[in-house]
Amino acid sequence: MTSLISAAAGSAATIAAEKKSADVTDWAARAGWVVGLLLFIALVYWLMREGWKWRGTLQGDLPELPSAPTGPGPAKLELSGRYHGSTTAGQWLDRIVAHGLGTRSRVELTLTDAGLDVVRPGAVDFFVPAAQLREARLDKGIAGKVLAEGGLLIVTWEHGEKLIDSGFRSDHAAEQADWVEAINNMINTSTTEGTAR
């Protein structure tokens, strides 16, 4: 019996010797990783910001955006929605950032005989004279924004010597087709009148 008790005591001592205490968290190493990660995120953000500014510098030849005339006439159409950005016409990934055209925002569009008035709370407003409008269509994407086919109203206009596509999304998507028709009719009418003269 004594040997049985001593064997049990020996195995208990062996089990106790094999157990280790839990590893203590190395807070200094963990803090170092967190600080390193935050510095990496800050570096990536800074590089993106510098890239945005560099793109704006490269597009510095783009003239200032026109502002709305004092008496544009009665509104043909009005739209509330979102402005998703502008790109070089036909190149839906070549975003234009000069003069605030790259800033997404809410938008209030008004189409008159004088042109297209783009009012953006919190961003730069601009005006596209009717003579500068080139085309309107429904499309699925513009730099950084892709929707279902026909989800975006794309207005092509000329500014300086550059053709620009600007993308808008109405709060009521069904009315975008009316905008395409109205703008294209306006362009065709002015083209016909110009040819007749």
UniProtKB/TrEMBL annotation:
Keywords: Membrane, Transmembrane, Transmembrane helix. Residues 62-183 form the PH domain. It holds the Pfam family bPH_11. The chain crosses the membrane at residues 27-48. InterPro entries: PH_bac (IPR057446). This is PH domain-containing protein. The lineage of its organism: Bacteria, Bacillati, Actinomycetota, Actinomycetes, Kitasatosporales.
